[in-house]
Amino acid sequence: MDRTAGLSLASAPGRWLVAVAVLGSALAQVEATVVNVALPSIGTGLGADVSHLQWVLNAYLLTLASLVLLGGSLGDRLGRRRVFIVGTMLFCVASTVCALAPDLSVLIAARAVQGVGAALVVPGSLAMLESMLAPGDRARGIGLWSALGGIAGAVGPVLGGVLVEVSWRWVFILPVPLGLLAAAAARQHLPQADDCELHGAAARERAEQGPAPSRARQSLDVAGTLLVVLALGGLTFALVQASVGPLWMVWASGGLGLAAAVAFVLVEQHAHDPLLPLRIFASRQFSAANLLTFVVYAALGGVFFLLVVVLQTGLGYSPLIAGAATLPITLVMLVLSARAGQLAQKIGPRLPLTGGPLVIAAGLLLLSRLAPGSSYLHDVLPAVLVLAFGLSATVAPVTATVLAAVPAQQAGVAAGVNNAVARTAQLIAISALPLVVGLNGTAYTDPQAISEAFATAMRMCAVLALTGAAIAWAMIRTPPPRSRAIPPRAGAGESDTVAGRAPSRPPSESSARAVVPPAAGPIGGPAELMADRRSSRPVGRQAPEVTHGPISAAMDAAMDAATGEAPLVGKRQLWHCAVADPPPLTAVLLGEPAPLSAPRTSSPGPDGQRHHG
Predict the structure, then answer these.
(1) Most exposed of 393, 411, 414, 498 (fewest Cβ within 10 Å)?
(2) 71 CB neighbour count, 10 Å cutoff
(3) A Pfam family this protein belongs to (predicted)?
(4) Burial letters 469-508, b for 16+ CB under 10 A, else e
(5) Average pLDDT, the chain
């Protein structure tokens, strides 16, 4: 394989790469949807109460949320292909044990092992596409991966309903052939060389940055991993057992979880290779997008846990019909998610991420009206469609916002953090919601009791969605439109009034700087210059440094009055620029800007974000 070109989708290895990645992600995607449909049947078959059903879901989510970041790190360290194969095989073994489980204890333990396998597979699926495909095929390959994964999610609930009609145990047999096929294909058709190495554009970018640290110098954050498992495990146990367990045990496990969470933050601050690099949260946009992810996915975790139960117990649907009832959600998202992402890219993320959760809240309020005797066409379907429209407007834009808020080399970490936040939110929601709405014991088998608890839960989830809308409106910022990079044009210089943007190229040697009121001290840089204060037309020049400093009223007035040429204040020429940090910083460049002559790149700003021209 050509290390500088990567795998082409026109080649057999390239097509096998996409197929393997799709099969791997389908493992987790299908299992997450079909198990929900099987919950009432599992409860009947094994004599489970609500807390046991919570653990059937939470055991999987707990290990997945705790270890997904470690899974990504192991892939970077040991080889993504190798870790992917190990993860799929572990998932298959655990699934087989789930299918054969004689009691709830064995089922819950095997579900936890399933989560470990998924934590190794999920980050590797996308990472292999990103690192192994040729740059020209990467977008298409990821698009195929996303679309085929969406189809797997759509088929999952219906297929799960068909299997549950036979036996709930077949739900856990379903992933086994998928996993075996994925592992065999990865071993047979993917490159056997060190798949940690980057290919194509990624390889060239790494070469420009210098050699990567050797594996001998890399270390796994074992302490951080253990602490996050203790934190999530302790809090989950306390929430699930609060209604059934001894009070002292609830308080002890909750206290242990909180203490472990505090210790985790302290350890990560000083770790050489932290599991969770806390500095990434210095970006306000990244923090806001993840906070939005948490509240929205907490609401969704509660919805999808209880919806299939109330459809079967409260409305009397069979497992097959209950699984098919949620199919419109996936179908609408398949059609609209990409368009929502394009719209957010065009108008910015703030409006979609405010409107999407508002629509989700409306759908949840409609779902809260479900009761025994409700009609699918008049009650269930409208609510499900409204929820689907809200999800379509939210999911793709929030993911894009997370990735755009960090430097390019931290995109993998950012995606892993966002994935872990979403899983953790679902874990906490599934743990806490039955306790809060008073659903315990075998109440889920009583149509009236489950319907009343479901109505209360949906109203609470709607509040979470509204909170997400408020977070987006208050904290998400739409960055200024990104400029097109063009080579320096003839005559660009003294005759242009310019406005600057985020750095798109490294500065040439120059002493020019920009000043920004009101404080003193360096901000960062470089800042690309635009044709005028109100235009995004680049002139091929930039300020290599942006520094806080005084701007006089005369300077500001001169910039306001400028139209066709850079103004002079005394004998000093002024160039207007704006550094694209949220919110944009207005600055004035003192002196001649440097020409843009180096290849296009991107540089981290003062808040750790990577800005692209």
Answers:
(1) 411
(2) 25
(3) MFS_1
(4) bebbeebbbbbbebbeeeeeeeebbeebbbbbbbbbbbbb
(5) 74
From CA 39, how far away is CA 183, in angstroms rounded? Answer: 28
pLDDT band at 214 (very low <50, low <70, confident <90, very high): very low
> Cis link prior to 40 (omega < 30° from 0)?
no
Residue 508 scores a pLDDT above 70: no
Q: Shortest CA distance to 118 belongs to which of 233, 226, 25?
A: 25
Phi-psi region of 406 (alpha: psi -120 to 50; beta: other; left: phi over 0): beta
The CATH code belonging to domain 1-204 is 1.20.1250.20
Which tokens belong to 401? 């916002």
551-555 long-range Cβ contacts below 8 angstroms, 24+ apart: 551/515, 551/516, 551/517, 551/588, 555/588
Decide if pLDDT at 94 tops 90.
yes
Q: CATH topology for 280-478? A: Growth Hormone; Chain: A; (1.20.1250)
User: Is-contact 116 67, C-beta < 8 A?
Assistant: yes
Whether the ω angle into residue 518 lies within 30 degrees of 0, i.e. cis, is yes
Strand runs (DSSP E) across 387-520, as ranges?
499-501, 513-516
What are the extents of the domains in the chain? 1-204, 221-272, 280-478, 499-611
Q: Report residue 123 as tokens.
A: 């980050």
Question: Which residues have C-beta within 8 Å of that of residue 453, sequence separation ≥ 6?
Answer: 306, 434, 437, 438, 439, 443
Does the pLDDT of residue 608 top 50, yes or no? no
